[in-house]
Amino acid sequence: MKELVKLNKKELEEKYKERTLVLCKPESIITGLYPEILSRIQRFHYKTPLVKMIQFHKDSIMEFYESVIEEWKPREDIIKIFMNMTKYPTLVTVVEGPNSIKAMRKLAGGLPKYESINFNIIFKGYEAQFRPINAPMGTIRGDYSAVDIDIPDTNLIPVPNYIHASADEKDYKREIDVLLKYNHISEKDFIEYEKPEWKILFGVDL
């Protein structure tokens, strides 16, 4: 017998207010793909309390992608690759709604991740698939790019995977803090508003 899931008031509030960060990366701006990315976000009927065009600079891009930069070598080459992202604009989008973190990771092209716990297979979310050729069809990276990392790495340019989505709540908060720190965004850029269809879709007036 299956049992209905019952969330308490605090848990419901956290679900409705869950936020994540989506970046429409420079290649999505240059190629004109970013409206399609925003359109796909809207198909989930999520809120977008912040949408702002910015331009990263050396300090902000280095801190934003610090953990990624540390994973690759030679360091001077990976830095050159990320510096290319400072030449063109990036569209910053904050997405709010139930399960927004997992949904945006899936939309970007993430692959399902599972763990075995006490002989049970547990779904753990979506792991980033930054190589577009390996991303599933139906996702932004899978539908709009078919490259691997060999050509971009050789030419010291970013992999054209179009979109970034926060890995989890901790990552979201860190990334927002970086954008605030370098004045790419401000608290005043966040706008609260209601989504009437949430009453039908999620059972709440917010």
Helix count equals 11
What's the architecture in CATH terms?
2-Layer Sandwich
Overall, the morphology is globular
Give the total of domains: 1
CATH fold topology:
Alpha-Beta Plaits
Helix percent band = 25-40%
Report on the structure:
Helix content is 39%, strand content 19%. It has 206 residues and is of the alpha+beta class. The strands form 2 sheets. The protein has a 4-stranded antiparallel β-sheet with strand order 2-3-1-6, sandwiched between helices. A two-stranded antiparallel ribbon has the order 4-5. The mean pLDDT is 95.
Defining traits:
single chain, 206 residues, alpha+beta, Alpha-Beta Plaits, 4-stranded antiparallel beta sheet, two-stranded antiparallel sheet, 11 helices, 6 strands, 39% helix
Task: Tell me briefly what this model is.
The protein is of the alpha+beta class and 206 residues long. The protein has helices at 9-17, 26-30, 34-43, 58-64, 66-69, 75-83, 100-108, 140-144, 150-155, 169-181, 198-201; strands at residues 19-24, 47-54, 90-96, 111-117, 120-127, 163-165.
Question: What secondary-structure arrangement, pairings included, does this model have?
Answer:
Layout: H1 9-17, E1 19-24, H2 26-30, H3 34-43, E2 47-54, H4 58-64, H5 66-69, H6 75-83, E3 90-96, H7 100-108, E4 111-117, E5 120-127, H8 140-144, H9 150-155, E6 163-165, H10 169-181, H11 198-201
Antiparallel strand pairs: 1-3, 1-6, 2-3, 4-5
